[in-house]
Amino acid sequence: MGDQIERRKAQHIDIVMTQDVAAAGITTGFENYRFIHEALPEVNFQDISLSTEFLGKEVKAPFLISSMTGGTEKATSINRHLAEAAEEKGWAMGLGSTRAALEHEAYAHTFQVRKYAPSIPLFANLGAVQLNDGYDETHCRKIVEITEADALVLHLNSLQEVFQDEGDTDFQGLLKKMEQIARRLEVPLGVKEVGWGIHGKLAKRLFDIGISFVDVAGAGGTSWSQVEKKRTKTPIRKLAADAFKDWGIPTAEAVTDVRKRNPGKTVIASGGLQNGVEAAKAIALGADLVGFGRSILNEAIESAEALIQVFDRIEFELKTAMFGIGAENLLDLKQTENLKHIRLSSG
Amino acid sequence: MGDQIERRKAQHIDIVMTQDVAAAGITTGFENYRFIHEALPEVNFQDISLSTEFLGKEVKAPFLISSMTGGTEKATSINRHLAEAAEEKGWAMGLGSTRAALEHEAYAHTFQVRKYAPSIPLFANLGAVQLNDGYDETHCRKIVEITEADALVLHLNSLQEVFQDEGDTDFQGLLKKMEQIARRLEVPLGVKEVGWGIHGKLAKRLFDIGISFVDVAGAGGTSWSQVEKKRTKTPIRKLAADAFKDWGIPTAEAVTDVRKRNPGKTVIASGGLQNGVEAAKAIALGADLVGFGRSILNEAIESAEALIQVFDRIEFELKTAMFGIGAENLLDLKQTENLKHIRLSSG
Amino acid sequence: MGDQIERRKAQHIDIVMTQDVAAAGITTGFENYRFIHEALPEVNFQDISLSTEFLGKEVKAPFLISSMTGGTEKATSINRHLAEAAEEKGWAMGLGSTRAALEHEAYAHTFQVRKYAPSIPLFANLGAVQLNDGYDETHCRKIVEITEADALVLHLNSLQEVFQDEGDTDFQGLLKKMEQIARRLEVPLGVKEVGWGIHGKLAKRLFDIGISFVDVAGAGGTSWSQVEKKRTKTPIRKLAADAFKDWGIPTAEAVTDVRKRNPGKTVIASGGLQNGVEAAKAIALGADLVGFGRSILNEAIESAEALIQVFDRIEFELKTAMFGIGAENLLDLKQTENLKHIRLSSG
Amino acid sequence: MGDQIERRKAQHIDIVMTQDVAAAGITTGFENYRFIHEALPEVNFQDISLSTEFLGKEVKAPFLISSMTGGTEKATSINRHLAEAAEEKGWAMGLGSTRAALEHEAYAHTFQVRKYAPSIPLFANLGAVQLNDGYDETHCRKIVEITEADALVLHLNSLQEVFQDEGDTDFQGLLKKMEQIARRLEVPLGVKEVGWGIHGKLAKRLFDIGISFVDVAGAGGTSWSQVEKKRTKTPIRKLAADAFKDWGIPTAEAVTDVRKRNPGKTVIASGGLQNGVEAAKAIALGADLVGFGRSILNEAIESAEALIQVFDRIEFELKTAMFGIGAENLLDLKQTENLKHIRLSSG
Ligand SMILES: Cc1cc2nc3c(=O)[nH]c(=O)nc-3n(C[C@H](O)[C@H](O)[C@H](O)COP(=O)(O)O)c2cc1C
Ligand SMILES: Cc1cc2nc3c(=O)[nH]c(=O)nc-3n(C[C@H](O)[C@H](O)[C@H](O)COP(=O)(O)O)c2cc1C
Ligand SMILES: Cc1cc2nc3c(=O)[nH]c(=O)nc-3n(C[C@H](O)[C@H](O)[C@H](O)COP(=O)(O)O)c2cc1C
Ligand SMILES: Cc1cc2nc3c(=O)[nH]c(=O)nc-3n(C[C@H](O)[C@H](O)[C@H](O)COP(=O)(O)O)c2cc1C
Hints:
4 copies of one chain form a homotetramer.
Chain A: H1 2-18, E1 33-35, E2 52-54, E3 57-59, E4 63-65, H2 73-89, E5 92-94, H3 99-103, E6 122-127, H4 137-147, E7 151-155, H5 158-163, H6 174-184, E8 189-192, H7 200-208, E9 213-215, H8 224-231, H9 235-241, H10 251-261, E10 266-269, H11 276-285, E11 289-292, H12 297-302, H13 304-325, H14 330-334, E12 339-341
Parallel strand pairs in A: 4-5, 4-11, 5-6, 6-7, 7-8, 8-9, 9-10, 10-11
Antiparallel strand pairs in A: 1-12, 2-3
Helix pairs in contact in A: 1-8, 2-13, 7-10, 8-9, 11-13
Bound molecules: flavin mononucleotide (FMN) (4 copies).
Residues 12-13, 16, 66-69, 96-97, 125, 155, 192, 194-195, 217, 221-222, 270-273, 292-295, 297 of chain A line the site of one flavin mononucleotide (FMN).
């Protein structure tokens, strides 16, 4: 079982890096927004601050490394690079699904990055559907311990499971089980999607049962039906995948909706983001933090230095966008009136 | 006459399979809708049920094989494949225009598929305009008997007749005649178009005179003016056909309109559908059943097995779409609020 | 002077036939409308009537040959072909600008087509701006006599004159002069544009001074700035022409607006029309007659037979469109509710 | 320092002329407007007047040469050509940033064009941000003296400074400092952007502190982040620049907004304009003057004669557009109701 997971995790990275698995017929929706330029910002660029806090810890920038990997040897170095870069830049970091570590002790070390990132907010990750497959709070607690994480995130990935030959597709009664975990676990519990988005009403139901933060992980970037299409050995899955290329809630719409219905709650925007201007739009639309996954994977494989260069670019872009609208800090950005919807529909 | 029909029917299949006869400048309109993803479906994929009933019989899935052929030798095997696959999967089936069987006893067997499909809803088919060409309830009754059908469907194909050199183009007084047939025939009478669509007010007039079900057969798939363009020997018809490439009511608009004005009535969506996600949209917009024609013709020529694979794919797509919005059965799907109009106009 | 006009007229035909002078960035706007198909027309195609009347004469179809040529030898045969075809099919016909015939007796015969078309509505044509260049009612009367026309049409072509090296660009006080002509001339006086359109308020002012009919001659077809660009020897005109490629009121918009503000008045739609479906839309939007120019010029050069074939196609397309929405005659078409605006803006 | 500025100024011209530095994903927005053609203009083309006044002087046309260069040897001839052409045609002229002249006496002559253009409105130019870098009213006064200018314009170029390795990015407290200069300087003080636009509320704040005129210098033409991308030696700037390709307020939107909120004030439209039809739209949307920069640079390098030909073309296009809508002078054009918004969003 652990072996199967390892193989799957390795394949995911491989497929995502080498094949065309982009969503098609759907975009993140950020291109439908444009900032209204503030020609006289009345701000000193040097004074612009990106710092905020997350999971009770200060982060130097409102950024998050999205949950990606672990449980495979290749992941060991990827996770180390990510952790080192995150520590250096003060970003938060999500680990990939830590299930492999539970099922196979030998994989535990692939997730153990706390030594490289002592100060950042770090969270462990597990598929919510596992709660219908024998997992309970004991396992959740164990994952958190093994990874020395500040929080646990459960991911909702219904359609991915459908397109996996080995998928778990019983999503009944999960809300109740998540509520119990949330109540009993010593660390905060978050919920995320993996690329099809979470809407505002669902986020509300999640916050209502005690979930601490929601990552919308919306559509417009990687399409997981396309990824699994490359892996599946069932002809019908391969054929059906194409009909889901444009499935999901565009990230920009998901963030907007989740924020509107959940004032004051911690919301993370991820899904297809590529640069700091899009991040600025996400924050102006309501996000507290912005996550990057696929678009930093290349550098994550390479080295911490390569990652740091990307992080620097993203931060510079965000700062420049803030300068462009005269926002000196994230609160200014969140409250800006300088973001305009320039198109009616999302492609 | 029977010979002429046979030739026409054979040509239709041939042209549709080998030439470009797609509508242009018009689409089904389904691409203007997008499902709002429900990240936490609270459903077990295995429990999703597609069953419903049609013409008093249970069908295992809300699908229909659209009326396509008969009256030509080639049709014998096509119809057998279709019938066998329909029986296997529990789909309903429409026969192609059964006029040839009446005019030429020798062709009757090409429609006699009841032996391969004893349990499914099956219906016979006739051009409504034939009622102005000597046909009456006696003929209708005979067709039903020959085919052992559960119902008869009259098709409205005004523009196709115009583009046929041998076409019947007197469509006067048909409503009244259909009313009589509906009243006197022992089986239910349905009405369908062939690819240009039926709107809500006409559907209402049809239900008002006793028609049992309406298949919108809308635009966006095969263009029948383009098909007849390839057959006609009249230069003027060939030239004029192009001006009608974008004629018709997009299928999605037709279904929406017909449902809105005819609550509680049996509505079939067909015309250009290719997969189960589009079928899910059609049902969410108001269809009870969804028909597939052109997009399964390839496999229909090949074998029942090939067809079954397509049917499996379509059902899997529909189930996955339902899972994606947390619908456990067709009633949930029909009542969903998770379908969103994402564009203003239809291309 | 007559020589110069002859050269210009010959060049126009030549340029229009061989070079790309299409408007760009603007369309007729008819593509923004779609007919709602009426699956049960309750009409016999054979009974559909296209006849109407114009200038007190019956026309067999609501069609008009737009004013194109005359005053050049080449025009003699073109005009003869047009007249013969018009007589054969019962279309109305407009002659090209008959100014040459006045300035040069020798050219008069190029316009004298009444012998080939004894029964149709025929009208002579003159640039309205000539009224500021020495022309008055005497000249108008003479033109009508020479051509045995049923009416005279004055064309408004301000931008064309600007782009002609020899252009007359004093358009002051023309309304008053047109009013006088309208009052004193024995035949009806019409007004047309040449491809940039007439809007509703101007049409009203024209009808108010006694103009009998208005031909919108809107944008989306031939761009006259592009035509004159090919002729001009002034570098500045050549360079400036491109900025006017998308100038004008799209034909569909012009017709709609003119009709809305001028109920009961005689309105002609022309400008970029190519087929009978577009003609049907024009009529449904408010036109009484529909004119074709550039799109029949090829055949006009060739022969009357070639023209007749095009006329047959256009009539067949119109009839088929009417059949498609269940309109038995032009009044039905004018009053149809089956025309839908499917896009917001015109490209 | 003067050397550095000289190098920068020379590079700017070089890059703008030879490389692709166009804004992408954003346009000026003028293509979203279309003039409603007035087929009967009732105007004599010869009588159309373009004259207006600016900075207390009469200009023969509502046109302005946008601030471009100076402070480099190459600029000497460019500025001379521009001045000679401006004098010949009666256009206003803005000099490029005159900072170099202050820091390096030797460069002063590159801006001294008053001898070639004794009668036109001429203005000097300085980066507003310099007021945070040691510049004050004394320097402003000196620049005006050296250049014999009628006014001084301060440019706001926040994002350009961010993308320059040597950029000044402290934009704090500039409004107050501009207010002082405006109060104390003997000539009028204007404010402009450099290609990202000024919106209506900011313009109001500027007029409120005593600024005499505002040039929106909006987006859709040259992208200054793209220009600086070619110059920068910092990898992060090079990478980040692409995210700002579509930044800014489209020129048409900026003009509209600035005019709406500042009735009666002097507003200049510039940014990406290419011809006189766009200029006509800008004026109809509210501009008093229209500026051209990049699109006349080629000819500015060549000769005064080449420039004059372009100016003639632009004036001819403007006049023709005015003729096309029946406007005899700029007041008519400003008050026209013949400009229509044909699309909802700007690309
Ligand atoms: C290679 C790869 C592996 C991933 N593995 C996980 C995972 O184990 N758990 C999870 O919650 N999300 C996983 N994701 C999803 C991401 O966390 C994220 O939600 C999604 O990719 C959208 O963001 P992006 O477009 O920036 O990549 C993975 C993504 C990638 C690209
Ligand atoms: C080859 C072929 C033959 C057809 N023959 C008939 C027919 O005899 N009677 C009928 O009502 N419709 C006929 N149709 C129309 C279909 O039933 C259906 O309404 C139409 O094709 C739209 O659906 P589709 O786009 O899925 O093909 C035929 C369609 C095809 C492709
Ligand atoms: C070759 C050619 C010559 C024309 N000459 C005249 C003319 O003399 N007088 C006139 O009123 N319009 C003239 N027109 C304009 C047409 O009458 C018509 O208004 C215009 O072309 C728009 O219609 P179309 O797009 O169908 O050609 C001419 C058009 C063409 C193509
Ligand atoms: C080569 C070049 C140099 C420029 N230098 C200046 C400058 O020194 N000061 C300034 O205010 N604007 C400067 N600009 C900006 C222009 O004045 C103008 O605002 C901008 O280019 C938008 O107009 P355009 O699209 O017509 O070029 C420069 C533009 C160009 C193309």
